[in-house]
Amino acid sequence: EKNGYAHFMLKEIYEQPRAVRDTLRGRISAASGHIELPGLDLSHDEIVHAERILIASCGTSWHAGLVGKFLLERMVRIPVEVDYASEFRYRRPIMRSRDIGLLISQSGETADTLAAQLEMIAGDIPTLSICNVVDAALTRKARGSITTNAGPEIGVASTKAFTAQIAALLTLSLYFAQCRKTMPQEAVQSILRELEVLPKAMEEALRTSAPVCARLAKIFSNATDVLFLGRGIHYPIALEGALKLKEISYIHAEGYPAGEMKHGPNALIDETLPVVCLATKDGDDPDSVLKYEKTLSNIQEVTARGGRVIAIVVEGDTAVSSLVEHTITIPRASEALLPILETVPLQLLAYFIAVEKGCDVDQPRNLAKSVTVE
Ligand code: F6R
């Protein structure tokens, strides 16, 4: 039941710290630096000699796949391709013997994702699943799997399954990085330490952003279009923010890489257009800082044209708040962990806007929780 929450979606948004904690539990230990993924069922040699990872998934799970690409390529230096599962087989995908297939799905029953898995099996590559349902069709056919322990997700819009999928992808990336020695053990351990306290940081993000999102929802519920911008690993989160908003509030929303704005979408900006910008940074990571600075100039391009910016920033940021109308603050974290934290306010923003508009949050029109047709 809803445990006193108005909707399952809200309950599930608030369950995320627990969902992430349960997904990491027993798999990571910061003290020993040990990572354990016994369900993976890949030999050390297969991991060390893997040449490519092919990810296929749908919707929100596809966004998790895109985050996974950034994590795996950065930490493991292995090339990763991410496909919509519904597109995978229609491009006659090239598969080689040292490729590994990775299917991501909350339900484990999505027809397109199962079809992509069959294609991979026919291509003779091992498949792994990241799935929230034990013993789903996807897991049964996969060679190895990581279960996200988010618990049953009832709201049609995926929330806790998504952040749990990213937690699983972080664990997988660190595990591969250890096996392939692509990161110094101290760096692995430092992220493990941060992961252990991530649920606390998520609680903090919920606590501080909920009232702000509720207030912003009143201001922006009349919007007809909303843009979401992000760069690098934050770009898939922009896509996810847009998907959440459109599916439950029926407002047209698009996620865009921040740097692409000047190649077309800038033409859309006027005083009526809310633009949600992911402007977080990890001050210890030069790549993250560079990306942040570029995003700052993208924000200036939007405000100069009268666009109404809502920026997601980390605690202590003053540069952005002096530029924009509204900011939502999340706790500081390493770049790899920011996607999970910045997802929280985007979910809440979509939720409160949908409630403001009187939409059926848990059962949006035309959508099903599990899509079992191709
Ligand atoms: C969006 C949403 C859908 C699902 C998609 C894949 O909030 O829930 O986009 O993510 O239908 O479903 P799974 O993950 O069950 O394969």
Please explain how this structure is put together.
A 5-stranded parallel β-sheet has the order 4-3-5-6-7, with helices on both faces. A 5-stranded parallel β-sheet has the order 9-8-10-11-12, sandwiched between helices. The model has no long low-confidence stretch (mean pLDDT 96). The two termini are 31 Å apart. It is globular. The protein has 374 residues and is of the alpha/beta class. The chain has helices at residues 8-14, 16-24, 44-49, 59-76, 85-88, 111-122, 137-141, 160-180, 185-220, 235-249, 286-304, 338-356; strands at residues 28-29, 34-35, 52-57, 80-84, 99-105, 127-131, 144-147, 225-230, 252-257, 274-278, 308-314, 326-330. One of its GO terms (molecular function) is glutamine-fructose-6-phosphate transaminase (isomerizing) activity. Catalyzes the first step in hexosamine metabolism, converting fructose-6P into glucosamine-6P using glutamine as a nitrogen source. Its EC number is 2.6.1.16.
Give the bound compounds. fructose -6-phosphate
Low-confidence stretches: none
Summarize the main sheet: 5 strands, parallel
Number of beta strands:
12
What is the gyration radius calculated from CA atoms? 20 Å
What's the overall geometry? globular
Oligomer: single chain
Spatial order of the strands forming the largest sheet:
4-3-5-6-7
Separation of the first and last Cα atoms: 31 Å
Number of helices: 12
How much is the average pLDDT?
A: 96
Work out the helicity level: 40-55%
